[in-house]
Amino acid sequence: MNALQCLHRGLAIAATALVMTVSLPALAQGNPQKGGTLVIVVQPEPPTLASYQSTAGPVGQVATKVYEGLLEYDFQLKPAPSLAQSWTVSPDGKTVTFKLVPNVKFHDGKPFTSADVQFSVMEVLKKVHPRGVNTFRAVTAVDTPDPMTAVFRLSEPAPYMMMALSSYESPMLPKHVFGSGEIARHPNANQPVGTGPYKFVEWQKGQFMRFDRNPDYRKPGLPHLDRIVARFIADSGTRSAAMETQEVHMGGFNAIPPVDVRRLEKLPHIDVTNKGYEMQSPIVQLDFNTTKPPFDDPKVRQAVAYAMDRKFVLDNIWFGFGRPATGPISSNFKANGLYTTADVRNYNVPNGVDLANKLLDDAGKKRGPDGVRFEIVHDVTPYGEEWRRFGEYTQQQLAKVGIKATLRVEDVPGWLRRVYTNYDFQLTSNWIQTLADPSIGVHRLYHSGSIKAGTVFVNNSRWTTKETDELMDKANVELDPKKRAALYHELQRRVVEASPLVFLHELDFVTVYNKRVNGFPLSPLGLYSSMDQVWMAK
Length: 538
Description:
By secondary structure, the chain is α+β, with helices and mostly antiparallel strands. Helix content is 28%, strand content 20%. The protein folds into 3 domains: 3-65 and 196-278 and 510-536, D-Maltodextrin-Binding Protein, domain 2, CATH 3.40.190; 71-185, Dipeptide-binding Protein, Domain 1 (Dipeptide-binding Protein, domain 1, Alpha-Beta Complex), CATH 3.90.76.10; 282-507, Dipeptide-binding Protein, domain 3 (Roll), CATH 3.10.105.10.
């Protein structure tokens, strides 16, 4: 079946998918049951367990079972205790004092103390974490007046920082393990030692990871499960079949292709939920290398943005799971006023192909005798079947405006290296989590300070301006909600106009799970949580 046939096939399915009602998790009756093995299908296989160095989606699904953060979050996105049992913020916002939970042990039996917090923030998160470089840039020091107290000293207020202290975003590492040697190449990167509910046991490449219950976990009686196994199944049809036959019990982040979700949800042992993604706010996009022709020209980038039919992509490749995107600020931020479409260029128009052709003509990119203006290589995100289909759609759509695109597909490590280390690409598909605050999830894509070769899911387009840097810098410290909103409205306008990325749609992820699974999700982090309260009905 070719790409066009796949898309036409999708039209029939999409009509049904669009009216899908995603349910809340169905919880079994009675008290949690002890024991059992939860099998999660993770796609693609994580390139590393070093979540302090890679924010690739699959990494967060596994590493958060081992590592913990200072805070957790409820569904109202309010901070809750984790390794920190309490905290206070000074009136000027420049001092944050955390009181740590006593008697917490790492998996090797060593105590967790404020020295580990200091090391994790100052030597790891500020230096090598893709988002931590920005998130903690205001932190000038972490004082340790006693083993159970960590005092963050800030050069300026950083209210967004409190939304970035989960295990997924800011894992706490043991200083006695990682304090010697180069963090970026540490031998324990894939032999993690944390404080979480599960201990890392083994990684059989291409097959699975295994995490066993931590008997010394800080929460009495938890976790409920004996172990969690992350399975890696490359073929999408095989993943769906494994869910159907109960070989696996759970799959999120579209590990189960959207095309199969409708069929599986009808089975008596399967349920589906979109809960557990509230802190992600993912946006599907195309990333340009703006430093090299032809995409150093904003008219060419705008042309590509006009050429893409967002509704068609959403309905026929992601089967209605989402809504068209309008810019770098997700519509999820409507509630706090940070989102706007006022005076923002709209690329989602009926005559987009015509406008694209005119822009390319104006840019001097004339068609040759064969109708081709220029040729490019499009690197397809290696995250599943829908991304391959999206690549084929992009190829066909660009052909309508005279751009001949050759598709290139690599494994995850190869793609990450090409796009974020070598910058050896022209156009790539991608999805980015804009997270719980734009300072955390948005700034990293456009700020000049986020251009760092080898750091993934940051500013790979390498597009920056002095004006947009200043807008983001001001928003970082602005405490007045209206003034902060005005800054982000202007950022929205400037980024969309320049189009260093093509914003396609805001993705709704779903988790497909066996009804034997209970206690999921209990937080907006979903599969990125520790899952210490998840249990399996016998």
